[in-house]
Design a protein that fits this description.
The structure is a homotetramer. Chain A is an alpha+beta fold. Chain A has one domain: Alpha-Beta Plaits, CATH 3.30.70.930. Chain A has a four-stranded antiparallel sheet, covered by helices on one side. In chain A, strand 2 and strand 3 form a beta hairpin. The N and C termini of chain A lie far apart (about 30 Å). Chains C and D meet through strand 1, helix 1, strand 2, strand 3 and strand 4 of C and strand 1, helix 1, strand 2, strand 3 and strand 4 of D.
Chain lengths: ~110, ~110, ~110, ~110
């Protein structure tokens, strides 16, 4: 039996690093999550969208949250938004498809 | 002279609609923002990323926030995250490119 | 006639300042919003809750977003969540009171 | 030895309930978190601020996220923001105190 999946978005931001750039931290966070077999992800310009079982998503978020500390950051602000629907299966692609069905020219 | 641009993500959610589906509202919000000449957008499974001048992004968000009310919703929760960098130009594509340069196999 | 009010929460975070502390920026943002006659605010440990007309809240957020730049920051991430209910009046105190009615020992 | 603490804010919102009111769900979520000995909380009009060890905060958020489902909701959107500082102790009160020191008349 396949486990129920949720869709979530996570953003991990280090504070006080001395540089306005965060791409190095983002790449390392993606590195961590991409090693998980049960989680799919897609990077967008404002965060990373995740799809997988709730329990493992929470584990992945804790792991991503540690990444900037392991690279020397003193303070990290991590934001997570969970979308969990239990009346029908929820996937990243399914959510996009439902909007596309109504508005076929939507830019994705 | 080209105006300074910001990158933002917006999510507009109606509460108490009687249905767990929100795709109809998302499509109508996209419809509103896609008519603006100075704003680029990309839909992702958790929100809509916008690129354009701060002032016009704020106008677009106010317009998107009204959409569910115009369709009968009684309560709307709108979330906006603004990323504004002034030491170098900031674009949706540029943010992705900087991560891709470090991690070429990142899924976008 | 009194204008319809919304309740919102805003958080303004400077990146790359070289210090993990943000209290100086928070105090200056509060300073800006506290000068507005039509907006009430309350600071909590994770953000500032605002109450007032939607249009003026948006103006205040733009003003708060500028504060860290005026103090030398190169990049600012501002998060805004708007709660707008139109079937009945919405206030900061009213929202708390409705929870307190159900759970009288709630800590506020 | 005392465990390191983080400060976080959580918001749990059910979709498609047929009612624009959420106070009943908020009260039940507070009920869940208030039973945890290692977590302090404060409700504000836009969310609940938590203080405690990261691991247990994550457990509490998972528990709060289940509350609306147990009351019949079909879809729940949960938002979590974690503030984790490791160069000095971080507490709800300490964060407020640092702002108050700079701006003594701040409304809390």
């Amino acid at each position: 039996m396949e486990e129920r999946k949720i869709v979530a978005e996570v953003s991990v931001v280090p504070l006080g690093t001395g540089s306005a750039s965060v791409s190095e931290y983002v790449a390392a966070c993606i590195d961590a999550v991409s090693r998980r077999k049960n989680i799919s992800y897609r990077l967008n310009p404002m965060g990373t969208v995740l799809e997988g079982p709730l329990e493992e998503i929470m584990e992945a978020v804790k792991e991503m949250h540690e990444v900037p500390f392991s690279k020397g950051a003193m303070r990290v602000v991590t934001t997570l938004k969970i979308d969990d629907r239990r009346d029908k299966p929820l996937t990243m692609q399914g959510k996009l498809d439902r909007v596309k069905k109504i508005k076929p020219d939507v830019k994705i």
